[in-house]
Design goal:
The chain is of the alpha/beta class. The protein has helices at residues 5-10, 27-35, 49-62, 78-87, 101-109, 121-129, 151-161, 175-183, 193-196, 205-213, 236-246, 252-259, 262-269, 292-310, and strands spanning 16-18, 40-43, 67-72, 92-96, 113-118, 135-138, 144-145, 166-169, 188-191, 219-222, 230-233. β8, α8 and β9 (188-191) form a beta-alpha-beta unit. It binds ligand TUI.
Length: 315
């Protein structure tokens, strides 16, 4: 059994988080992950306060295990979502795509454990000083909105810089990635792409099929020009987006408008022509639909075997 301080801190069996993927991570997915021993996380991104409250209620009807809510700091609903987290005493909040300092004290005072996603050492140090329970160091191999650093250099530098546990994210889909993350100094891992194809994940079947079909070169990053680089499966939408991004007669506002609503089209309609199928570089490692229980058990068993074998590699 892999031992980690993060399991004791959060009251979970496996040191595995499911990423709080916008439009994807609902109560069904998060409850299945938490019920299977990981930390299920509801995405607050695409919901207003009352929608989030309903999703939390739904999760609590399915499991009494700890869970998290992800706050996407660029969401138009960030203030009301932050308030609902306090009112519902959500056990864990993760944040992404920005600096969460405005909300950290309010959440900690309400007894919420705060675990921000950081893409740099400087933000990791800042949130550690303000009382974060842990940080998620997410590398640019991830799907969705990404920072500049990648997982291999980012995780050990963050681990060296802070005294709180580090969860590694970005580029992890199996036990090999999990074992490697522990070698880099992580105390846990967060996976998004692998959970896209979980049986309990309610996205359109076309999205799952495209992830399963994808190979090592299947993703592309767009949106740097508008300050929101995001990794997605290459498709007609990313091709057109990229052409417009490189066309200086298209202004930033127009480019932003072109991307708006594209993730929903992928998740809800499986619209391959017009949708943004956010996905990590590990898509090529994701081969089949499985239950969350199967994913977690396979992941942890593989990692344990590798870490045990690693101990016999040296005399
Ligand atoms: O947030 C994510 N991934 C996301 S959010 C999202 S919603 C969206 N939909 C369409 C287009 C764009 C976004 C989809 N995927 N991951 C966490 C994450 N946070 N990755 C990188 C960061 C990050 C970057 C910079 C965190 C902090 C940061 O610091 C900025 C600062 O102000 O210091």
């Amino acid at each position: 059994m892999i031992k980690s301080v993060i399991c004791d801190l959060l009251g979970i069996r496996y040191p595995v988080f499911q990423g709080g993927m916008a439009w994807v991570a609902d109560a069904d997915l998060a409850a299945a992950v938490s019920e299977s021993g990981g930390l299920g996380i509801i995405a607050g991104m695409n919901m207003n306060g009352e929608q989030l409250r309903a999703e939390i209620k739904k999760l609590r009807e399915k499991t009494d295990r700890p869970f998290g809510v992800n706050v996407m700091l660029m969401s138009p609903f960030v203030a009301e979502v932050a308030e609902v987290i306090v009112e519902e005493t959500v056990p864990v909040v993760t944040t992404g795509a920005g600096n969460p300092l405005t909300y950290i004290k309010k959440w900690i005072d309400a007894g919420v454990k705060v675990i921000p996603v950081v893409a740099s050492v400087s933000l990791a140090k800042m949130v550690a000083k303000r009382g974060a329970t842990a940080v998620i160091a997410e590398g640019g191999e991830s799907g969705g909105h990404i920072g500049e650093a990648h997982t291999m250099p980012l995780v050990p530098q963050v681990a060296d810089a802070v005294d709180i546990p580090v969860i590694a994210a970005g580029g992890i889909a199996d036990g090999r990635g999990m074992a490697a993350a522990f070698m880099l100094g992580a105390e846990g891992v967060q996976l998004g792409t692998r959970f896209l194809v979980a049986k309990e994940c309610n996205i359109h079947q076309r999205y799952k099929d495209e992830v399963i079909k994808a190979g090592d070169m299947a993703t592309v990053v767009n949106g740097r020009r508008i300050g929101h680089p995001a990794r997605a499966l290459k498709n007609p939408f990313t091709k057109l987006f990229s052409a417009r991004e490189n066309d200086l007669t298209v202004d930033d506002e127009e480019l932003t408008a072109f991307g708006t609503g594209a993730l929903k089209k992928a998740v809800k309609d499986g619209d391959w022509e017009n949708g943004s199928f956010l996905c990590g570089q590990v898509a090529g490692l994701v081969k089949k639909e499985q239950s969350c229980q199967e994913i977690l058990e396979e992941l942890v068993l593989e990692a344990e075997a590798l870490l045990k074998r690693a101990a016999t590699r040296c005399e």
